[in-house]
Write a structure and sequence with these properties.
Blueprint lengths: L4 E2 L5 E5 L3 E9 L13 E9 L2 H17 L8 E3 L10 E3 L6 E5 L14 H12 L4 E5 L16
Antiparallel strand pairs: 1-3, 2-3, 3-4, 4-8, 5-6, 7-8
Length: 155
């Protein structure tokens, strides 16, 4: 079972898209040791949530489909050797797109226990739960494309 905890209580808003807010969010892997994970088992990811979950869900769904369609080759750094300089270290080409960790759609149990909740609050609460935004999770590579000026071999 693959399990991780995304802590939106510690999220930091880092930008906006046309239809979504972008957050840097800690994710905790309780029983997995991975590169980039600190001693507490945490790493950083980027999460995108729709501004208006019901209206913008299709935009996030389409974006997630695009990320899911990319091959692993464009989601990882690649070292390229210069044949004219065989003894020199490789030039590291950054990934074209961040690693895609998935698209998560909140599921609300229709039979959610509403015991102890006043009757007039039950329907608004169900509506609020059903309108939670889907979440796109991807690598926090720390680089914004808009602020980057590719040069030389990157072009």
């Amino acid at each position: 079972e693959r399990l991780a905890y995304v802590d939106f209580g510690r999220a930091t808003r880092i930008g906006n898209g046309n239809h979504s807010a972008v957050y840097s969010v800690p994710i905790k892997f309780p029983y997995i040791a991975l590169a980039g994970v600190n001693a507490d088992g945490e790493a950083g990811v980027v999460a995108k949530l729709a501004f208006r979950p019901l209206e913008d869900r299709s935009h996030l769904t389409n974006e997630a489909r695009r990320y899911a369609s990319f091959s692993a080759d464009v989601q990882q750094d690649i070292g390229i050797y210069d044949p004219a300089k065989p003894d020199s270290p490789p030039v590291i080409m950054p990934a074209i797109v961040p690693k895609f960790y998935g698209y998560y759609i909140p599921v609300v149990d229709e039979d959610i226990d509403m015991e102890g909740i006043e009757d007039e609050r039950k329907e608004p609460l169900k509506t609020a739960l059903q309108s939670l935004s889907p979440i796109i999770l991807m690598e926090d590579c720390g680089k914004s494309y808009e602020n980057r000026d590719p040069s030389g071999i990157e072009r």
